């Protein structure tokens, strides 16, 4: 059985070590892409929820492609205990740095490949100025500093507006309609990066992610924990998209093979439009708990159409039904979670 097939057939994830291994296992497509990728790779803002396993996947892809001489470097403040050591143990060099501090970018090493991951979402309400500095001002500085590099930059599906739940969601070519300071600042990031890409000839890709999930964090964990705790499930944002974080990692790294100026844009999410009600009812069945709902489903939701990325990179290895089953199993056996609600249910763009 191939690695791809074994991941798709998972019945249970044993522990955090196996989970991190699965999230960072490079697909054959990633290994092929990294065999052709010249030079070292820097991750800016590596210490978030997705960064560590993404950086480890990159390290493993270089090694599998016979390019072990390539450096993978992670830059972050590393305010959470253990994250820097975790990366170093896996062959990723680390640099402690606050990217907003004057002079910081100039002191970072050169590299021909950059993944830009830093952002501010939670706590944006009440800290609007810092949100715009992180999400729009800093990306412009990064692009100027690394004008001779190739850049893959994370964005978000929050740059879109709410779409009818009867459709597939927003396409990359749809005009943005962000709601709230966070979404608007992320659109600001995209506009600044597009300007720098055009003006400086920087090959780029923008990754509009919506939403990556794993067993410790994400929309499915939010819903599963509510059902397990007997809490009421709000139906206002009654539909959503989700993708296994390991698949989102793989699509992000494969984007290095599809850079352009102006930037190529990819919606990265799963192909399904998922119903909050149906997902919660499935969790209730799997967890042996009743489920209570509040409110009613709106006719629209924040949804993204990922057919472009799926056409290029292939479908996610783990579908939504399997993700729900794996999440329920993890919660039932008391697996750790990050205890960071996604607030995906917010319809007013306030996070």
From TrEMBL:
Residues 66-209 form the NAD-dependent epimerase/dehydratase domain. This is NAD-dependent epimerase/dehydratase domain-containing protein. The keyword RNA-binding does not apply. Transmembrane segments: none annotated. It comes from Aquisphaera giovannonii. Pfam families: Epimerase. It comes from the Bacteria. Coiled coil: none annotated. InterPro entries: Epimerase_deHydtase (IPR001509), NAD(P)-bd_dom_sf (IPR036291). The keyword Transcription regulation does not apply. The lineage of its organism: Bacteria, Pseudomonadati, Planctomycetota, Planctomycetia, Isosphaerales. Keywords: Plasmid.
């Amino acid at each position: 059985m191939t690695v791809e097939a074994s991941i798709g057939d998972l019945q249970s994830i044993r522990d955090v070590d196996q989970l991190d291994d699965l999230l960072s296992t490079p697909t054959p497509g990633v290994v092929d892409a990294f065999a052709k990728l010249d030079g070292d790779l820097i991750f800016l803002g590596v210490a978030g929820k997705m960064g560590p396993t993404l950086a480890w996947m990159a390290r493993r892809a270089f090694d599998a492609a016979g390019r072990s001489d390539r450096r993978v470097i992670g830059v972050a403040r590393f305010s959470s205990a253990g994250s820097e050591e975790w990366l170093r143990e896996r062959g990723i060099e680390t640099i402690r740095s606050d990217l907003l501090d004057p002079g910081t970018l100039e002191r970072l090493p050169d590299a021909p490949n950059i993944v830009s991951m830093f952002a501010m979402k939670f706590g944006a309400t009440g800290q609007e100025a810092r949100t715009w500095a992180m999400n729009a001002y800093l990306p412009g500085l990064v692009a100027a500093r690394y004008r001779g590099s190739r850049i893959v930059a994370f964005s978000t599906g929050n740059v879109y507006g709410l779409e009818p739940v009867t459709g597939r969601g927003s396409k990359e070519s749809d005009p943005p309609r962000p709601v709230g300071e966070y979404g608007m600042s992320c659109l600001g990031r995209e506009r600044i990066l597009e300007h720098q890409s055009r003006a400086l000839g920087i090959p780029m890709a923008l990754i509009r992610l919506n939403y990556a999930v794993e067993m410790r964090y994400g929309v499915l964990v939010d819903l599963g924990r509510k059902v397990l705790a007997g809490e009421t499930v709000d139906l206002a944002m009654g539909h959503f998209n989700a993708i296994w974080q390991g698949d989102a990692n793989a699509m992000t790294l494969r984007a290095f093979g599809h850079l352009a100026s102006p930037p190529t844009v990819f919606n990265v999410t799963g192909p399904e439009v998922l119903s909050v009600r149906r997902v919660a009812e499935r969790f209730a069945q799997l967890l042996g708990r009743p489920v209570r709902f509040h409110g009613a489903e709106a006719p629209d939701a924040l949804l993204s159409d990922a057919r472009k990325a799926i056409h290029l990179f292939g479908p996610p290895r783990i579908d939504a039904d399997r993700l729900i089953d794996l999440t329920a199993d993890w919660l039932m056996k008391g697996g750790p979670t990050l205890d960071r609600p996604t607030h995906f249910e917010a319809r007013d763009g306030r996070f």
